[in-house]
Amino acid sequence: MTKLIGKDSVRFTLIKPCDIDPDCNQPRKYFDEYELSLLTDSIKQNGIIQPLSVRPNGEGKYILIAGERRLRAAISLGLKKVPCIIHRTDEKTAAYYSIIENLQRTDLTVFEEAEGISRLIKEYGMPYSEVAEKLGIAQSTLSNKLRILRLDNTLRERITAAALSERHARALIRLPEEKRKSALDKIIAEGYTIRECEKYIDSLLNESEKAEQPVRLKTSIGDLRIFSNSLSRLVDTMVSCGINAKQERIDGKDYIEYRVKIRKAPREDEAKPVQLTLC
Predict the structure, then answer these.
(1) How many Cα atoms within 13 Å fall on the side-chain side of residue 154?
(2) Helix (H, G, I), strand (E, B) or coil at 69
(3) Residue 3, strand partner residues
(4) Active site residues
């Protein structure tokens, strides 16, 4: 028996689980086995309270829009039919419904949410403004959510496993790629809160900036005189020790050039000057 609900394009019915195919574009990729077992026990005791959302695939079966955990639990329990709401809609709208349904139930990880939003923009051509409006968030917030996709899959998995937040991930993005892994190691090991994480990232960035800054010597007329006098004393010391040395200063247009010339010692095969003593 089919019961119409509201618009003609939406109706409620019971469908065999084997006639429902999961959506390959489902934003939710990670399913916690423990939570799934709890849901299975609940459905066993109380049945499926919230219907699944599906759409026709044009071949007599259906594609799941939302409710994959309920579908998995129903299959594991061997249920013959499950309650479903059929949406006669296109793939783009179905993808949007899937993301919204999961967001409202807070079932998505921060990366699943960002990937789902990215797909709406890239694959279905939805502009930023439209996606932000439908999600009820500012465009700047939307941009921040998408930024975390710059992290590689390994870091995403570790952040998800450690139950870190979107702000933890956004803070990590501020670091150069080669420094993110070691920083995440410390963030997880120390159990940093969002504020502690951001403070730690700030300290790493400040250290990098200091290391990259060239050493600049402040010069003045007094500094130049001190340098010139020090050089002159050094040359005088060399002369007093019997070294044939002399200093030369050249004043250029844009710079001052100092030259110190030291005469090489004569080779042994060179003729030595004859010293005459007059009496």
Answers:
(1) 6
(2) helix
(3) 12
(4) 68
Amino acid at 239: V
For residue 118, which of 106, 128, 109 has the smallest C-alpha distance? 128
In DSSP terms, 85 is beta-bridged to 12, 53
Residue 143's Cβ-side half-sphere holds a number of Cα atoms within 13 Å equal to: 4
Ranges 23-27, 59-63, 170-174, 268-272, most confident = 170-174
d(CA 160, CA 177): 18
Start-to-end CA span in the chain (Å): 143
Would you call 230 helix, strand, or coil by DSSP?
A: helix
Helix (H) or strand (E) holding 149: none
Residue that the structure tokens 């109706």 belong to: 11
Mean of pLDDT values over 110-134: 83
Which structure tokens are listed for 224? 């130049």
> Any idea of the CA torsion for 95, 99, 102, 108, to the nearest 10 degrees?
120
